[in-house]
Design goal:
Layout (H helix, E strand, L loop, with lengths): L15 H5 L1 H5 L6 H13 L17 H5 L6 H11 L4 H10 L2 H8 L3 H8 L2 H11 L27 E5 L2 H5 L2 H13 L4 E5 L5 H5 L3 H20 L3 E4 L2 H14 L4 H12 L1 E3 H7 L16 E4 L3 H4 L6 H6 L6 E4 L18 H18 L3 E3 L3 H11 L3 E2 L1 H12 L1
Helix pairs in contact: 3-5, 13-15, 14-15, 19-20
Length: 402
């Protein structure tokens, strides 16, 4: 089972979860995670039908889980309800593809130039809006067909890292992936093995539990051998890191052997910034980085917060000489992966992001940095300011020094 219903009665109806829910804050009609999670879960467990379209409006941000004083798995309950939710045919077709970015990426990078041309033509976007209920206001990311080829050395596994590429870096930002690999090698990780599988979070968020379990199982079987041999798993996408650390356990918990494997992988998985923070002495940070007079703002994505690792990139970037950096601390951006692409959710997505947009305008930075690819898309869409992964800024400044 995906959620832990054993702790259902731990819910004391305090409404802390509703207070932090980004959708509830901007959309008063939304029932909130307390209702959609533990309250309706009691009815679902009794076999009472209580399916509702509201279940689709959960962002899957996990903020409700983080604030629950009794550790009720609210998000897990809602995700399980999503799996049983009956959708109209058009939304079902759309969400099938949104659940499989690995398949969509493969298809769209067969002829990437044609893909990028077509996806950014207004009439095509209007057609997708009519046929698939994809918002015509959204600009799709650029698709790039480029493999990240790096040499693999025969070294002990304790000196090895598996770089979990993820779909966004694989199909939209391979240059970022290449920079991450080269930097890992530079700090002494001689063997960096690249794994380009999909973490399964898009499937989970879109209610396709079967696909999410397939991804979780295939990722686990691929990673476990090297992890048991001493390798670390590093992810430069916060959603991939969140999935590897927190979600495989619930998806595969009916298989006791698999449960042990996913727990081992979770303990061996690091966000890229988290990994660098633990090894910053290896690359003599202060001596190898150029000074920068940039004024930037930092946004912490929901799935970075959910990992409980603090703000590693904010603290790494603060060490750059003369760099001015502001922690926005303005909540969820509202994009939530594919959520903001959906026609019926576009306005809610932008309303949620408004607080962040206003904070950015108040700070008036030259650039925004954030680890999440869809957060970057939302910020550039909302305030028209260049937004990059913090690793890009750090690695470019280190390269400039040497």
């Amino acid at each position: 089972m995906l959620c832990n219903s054993i702790n259902l009665d731990n819910c004391i109806k305090c409404s802390d979860c509703n207070a932090v829910c980004p959708v509830s804050i901007v959309y008063p009609a939304y029932p909130g995670p307390k209702n959609l999670g533990p309250e309706l879960e009691r009815l679902r467990l009794e076999g009472i039908s209580c399916d509702t379209d509201w279940i689709e409006y959960c962002l899957n941000c996990y903020r409700c889980n983080l604030v629950c004083p009794n550790q009720v798995d609210i998000s897990g309950m809602i995700n399980m309800a999503k799996a049983h939710h009956k959708k109209p045919l058009i939304r079902k077709m759309r969400d099938f593809w949104f659940s499989r970015p690995w398949l969509l990426g493969r298809l769209l990078t067969i002829m990437p130039r044609l893909t990028n041309l077509m996806l950014n033509i207004r009439p095509v976007r209007l057609l997708m809006s009519r046929l698939l209920k994809i918002s015509s206001n959204r600009i799709f990311p650029i698709y790039i067909d480029s493999d990240i080829n790096v040499p693999i050395h025969d070294v002990p596994k304790s000196d090895s890292v598996i770089f979990f590429l993820g779909c966004s870096i694989r199909y939209n930002q391979p240059d970022l992936g290449r920079k991450v690999v080269l930097f890992l090698q530079r700090i002494g990780i001689k063997s960096v093995n690249i794994f380009s599988g999909c973490c399964g979070l898009p499937a989970l968020a879109n209610g396709d539990i079967k696909e999410a379990r397939v991804r979780a199982r295939s990722n686990t079987e691929y990673l476990i051998k090297d992890v048991l041999a001493g390798s670390f798993v590093v992810a430069a996408c916060t959603s991939c890191g969140h999935m590897l650390k927190t979600c495989f356990d619930g998806l595969l918990d009916e298989d006791s052997d698999m449960k042990h494997k996913v727990q081992k992988i979770a303990k061996s998985t690091f966000d890229f910034g988290e990994f660098l923070m633990s090894r910053s002495d290896l690359f003599l940070f202060d001596n190898n980085i150029s000074s920068s007079n940039l004024r930037i703002a930092y946004h912490a994505p929901c799935h970075q917060i959910s990992q409980g690792i603090g703000r590693p990139w904010f603290h790494l970037l603060k060490r750059i000489p003369n760099l001015q950096i502001e922690d926005l601390d303005a909540g969820c951006c509202g994009m939530s992966g594919t959520f903001g692409f959906k026609e019926e959710k576009y306005k809610i997505s932008m309303d949620i992001g408004q607080r962040l947009f206003d904070s950015i305008r108040d700070v008036n930075p030259q650039m925004v940095v954030t680890e999440c690819a869809t957060c970057r898309m939302q910020i550039e869409h909302g305030v028209k300011i260049k937004t990059i992964h913090p690793a890009e800024l750090l690695l470019d400044l280190i390269s400039a020094k040497t």
